[in-house]
């Protein structure tokens, strides 16, 4: 499967098994997602009926080993993320929340019992998870979270609020991060526990084919073994966020590529002043600029993926990819919309939908500003967060 934006024979840098995995996900997206996504987006629904198919493709916790997970490489996960987000950011976000956040938290930090209970059913898509970190007053500064878990005998009791929590209203299990007398800890919380309430956030202008929720935790009582035993402090949630950020590096370029392809095809078919838009110099400049950034973005993603597979990827390098590729992807989607003219503001075409979604993607898992300061610290040795 050739990409219309590929100017450098990117496929030659991939192994046959990597291309095969990418092509299988692309076929699924072309067959099941693209014909339906405009309706789902307009109606603001996430199609839960596709979850079993995502599981059959081995995409849920696909980078984890054992427990029914596919054990795929970081590069394969990235290629899948790009194809999913070419369909819609909400689709890639589902796979990211399920695998990179919730399943990764249990896999990295959970007990053997927690892993055995949740990972196989989540890999099969029989249980959906959510990851409760962000709060109404603590987004970029998770260390300032107000949610608190206190000991009561052998139990834990949690009170607090979380916001912008993907999938919470359809989840069977939540990973909730809370302050304790011993610092930040993570808890495995079945969502049918009394006192746990998830309410979808309506009236969104972005990520409409996705589920984000407010969570209220009111005297949520859990047994002592609900805590994730193998981590304490913010390194727990941040280790999971880095998994999700890595997927975004690829996913954002998938959205950009799809927006570019929509604009390219339109420019060949739309005639103005006696010739196709593709025949005008200003249009060709836009197309070339978009294609160059897509090629560079995928090269960056692949380089970081190879480093991740080799065990040499550093956290600040993830910030390089997340900041650059989100920033460039939203520029590409907006430029693609200009080629479509007035027709580009309808759901008949993907660029403005992608641009709207990317406003969320560039915000979650670390805003542009946060990643800029991470890299500023890397370059100067001076932390500027406060």
Could you describe the 3D structure shown?
The chain has 386 residues and is an alpha+beta fold. The chain folds into 3 domains: 114 residues, Butyryl-Coa Dehydrogenase, subunit A, domain 1, CATH 1.10.540; 98 residues, Beta Barrel (Butyryl-CoA Dehydrogenase, subunit A, domain 2), CATH 2.40.110; 146 residues, Butyryl-CoA Dehydrogenase, subunit A, domain 3 (Up-down Bundle), CATH 1.20.140.10. The protein has 11 helices and 11 strands. The strands form 4 sheets. The protein has a 4-stranded antiparallel β-sheet, with helices on one face. Strands 3-6-7 form a 3-stranded mixed β-sheet. The protein has a two-stranded antiparallel sheet with strand order 1-2. The protein starts with 15 loop residues before the first helix and ends in a 6-residue tail after the last helix. The mean pLDDT is 97.
Features:
about 375 residues; alpha+beta; Butyryl-Coa Dehydrogenase, subunit A, domain 1; Butyryl-CoA Dehydrogenase, subunit A, domain 2; Butyryl-CoA Dehydrogenase, subunit A, domain 3; 3 domains; 4-stranded antiparallel beta sheet; 3-stranded mixed beta sheet; 11 strands; about 50% helix; globular
